[in-house]
What we know:
Strand content of chain B: over 45%
Number of helices of chain B: 0
Low-confidence stretches of chain A: none
Helix content of chain A: under 10%
Radius of gyration of chain A: 13 Å
Largest interface: A-B, 25 and 25 residues
Distance between the termini of chain B: 31 Å
Mean pLDDT of chain B: 92
Number of helices of chain A: 0
Oligomer: heterodimer
Number of strands of chain B: 11
Shape of chain B: globular
Largest sheet of chain A: 6 strands, mixed
Order of helices and strands of chain B: EEEEEEEEEEE
Low-confidence stretches of chain B: none
Strand content of chain A: over 45%
Order of helices and strands of chain A: EEEEEEEEEEE
Structural class of chain A: mainly beta
Radius of gyration of chain B: 13 Å
Amino acid sequence: GESVGLHLPTLSVQEGDNSIINCAYSNSASDYFIWYKQESGKGPQFIIDIRSNMDKRQGQRVTVLLNKTVKHLSLQIAATQPGDSAVYFCAERDNYGQNFVFGPGTRLSVLP
Amino acid sequence: ETGVTQSPTHLIKTRGQQVTLRCSSQSGHNTVSWYQQALGQGPQFIFQYYREEENGRGNFPPRFSGLQFPNYSSELNVNALELDDSALYLCASRQGNRGSYEQYFGPGTRLTVT
């Protein structure tokens, strides 16, 4: 079946450094992916998305890279700030397109 | 804030009881999805409603049911509560059925079953 997982459950970075959060997925038929940020006590917040016909997409301070050959997704955050501290989830659209399969999440901690 | 609201914020129930959770979608959004998020895990899809009809369901038993109303608000009902139902229940709304997948989540309802 489909599964989405993350390589690292926790990540600590210094303020101002770049962060890279990784995600592996198993369903080669997945055609759409989203990164979400979830702060304590809040629901997941949409960060950036990417379709399978792309390998890179940039937003404000964030970049998502997709490598379909090895079924790997990454989120890069430039100049990480204290407000970036949260749990980050990658999610892939399921075969039927009606829901997303979420990974277990990576906790990002930004050190002063 | 996303404009998606959920009530109640927290709820404590006893095993075997029934519970109803409510969600008001963002203005203009006609699709609502419900997710269950266990502590330390990612959200798991329960089901989705589009124009008052369920049009997608995850791997959850029939005792998880829902409704969507003409104003696109939604309810999640869980019967015969079990201890493992303790979780954060999230609803998410978006515009369209198979169009944009940029969905907006509410803050969730924390359900504790004792």
